[in-house]
Amino acid sequence: MWLFRFGFCFFYSPRFLLPWLLLVSFARSLYLPYLSQTVQSRPKMKSGTFLATALAAATSLTEAAVIWDGRFNDFTSAADLNKWSWSNQVGPYQYYIHGSGTVDKYISLSPDYKNPADTVSKQGAKFTLDSTAFWNGQNMRRIELIPQTKASIASGKVYYHFSIMRKDTNAPSVNREHQICFFESHFTELKYGWISGEQGTSNPNLQWMTGGKSQWKTEWKAGVWHNIAYEIDFGANKVGFWHSEGAAPLKQTVAPVSASTSSNGADWHLGVLELPRSGYSDTNEDFYFSGVFIETGTITIAIGGP
């Protein structure tokens, strides 16, 4: 106790405190002018600037992130698709839904097959339905690729992107139903041509469907690139539709609608299934795709993706 009292009296005695007070006062006199000058020279942040900065920071947390890339940039030719098998699941695509011919009969790659406005993709793909394009003994002509990935492409909110075009040469038939870029449950897909059960004999429209119901349509003219994104919220069971033509940025054409968003992450088909129709013979048909990828976060509206 006596030691404590001695220390307390010593440190708080005027003889001890006075030199320290003088030293602190001297240091303060040197530092305060510098501090004042620094604060005055520092630009003031207006409330609007602060708000914009905060919003930018918040936005950066949800920036677009590609979780699966199917843009064919790493392919030397369509023959690379043959590297995939059930026992050797490599590359971005599963390739097993096709006819009896070699891969080059159904898919070919070229820079000429992509949307010219897409500067991210090195090349696009031409998918062909011919007289051999029957898969697994079915009477439907099919050529489809399925994403090969362990990414969570079937949960949360995701955007499935692709661009599609046709030409007058080997034009898809307006007299047959074509199911394009679909899920196996068909909760969202494109369709082209005469749809089974409808009136008339032909239909020139490209349509976006949810659960078999048309939500959007436009005449599919030759040489026009249609840029598409399915906005799928697997948690909320809703699907929206983004669209543009040519080089125009994507816009939300149809706000999200209710849908049975069911997927196991391995049942989205990039390509075409054509239903047979009595009285209409098979002809060669070509479909062009580019800018294929899936992303989360904020949608990328620029053609080709981030």
Account of the protein in words:
This protein is an alpha+beta fold and 306 residues long. The chain has 2 domains: 2-41; 60-296, Jelly Rolls (Sandwich). The chain contains 3 helices and 15 strands. It has helices at 2-11, 14-41, 47-60, and strands at residues 65-69, 93-97, 107-110, 124-129, 141-147, 157-165, 178-183, 189-192, 205-210, 213-219, 226-233, 238-245, 251-258, 268-274, 285-296. It is globular and about 50 Å long. Mean pLDDT is 86; it is low at 1-61. Pfam families: GH131_N (PF18271). Residues 66-298 form the Glycoside hydrolase 131 catalytic N-terminal domain. This is Glycoside hydrolase 131 catalytic N-terminal domain-containing protein.
Short description:
With 306 residues, the protein is α+β, with helices and mostly antiparallel strands. It folds into 2 domains: 2-41; 60-296, Jelly Rolls, CATH 2.60.120.1160.
Total strands: the figure is 15
Q: Kindly report the CATH topology of the largest domain.
A: Jelly Rolls
Give the domain tally. 2
Helix content: 10-25%
Number of helices: 3
Shape type: globular
CATH architecture of the largest domain, by name, is Sandwich
Whole-number radius of gyration? Answer: 31 Å
* Residues in β-strands, percent: 25-35%
Distance between the termini: 73 Å
User: For this structure, what is the CATH class of the largest domain?
Assistant: Mainly Beta
Q: H/E order of the elements?
A: HHHEEEEEEEEEEEEEEE
Mean pLDDT score, rounded?
86
Structural class: alpha+beta
Could you give a short account of the major beta sheet?
A: 8 strands, antiparallel
Low-confidence stretches: 1-61
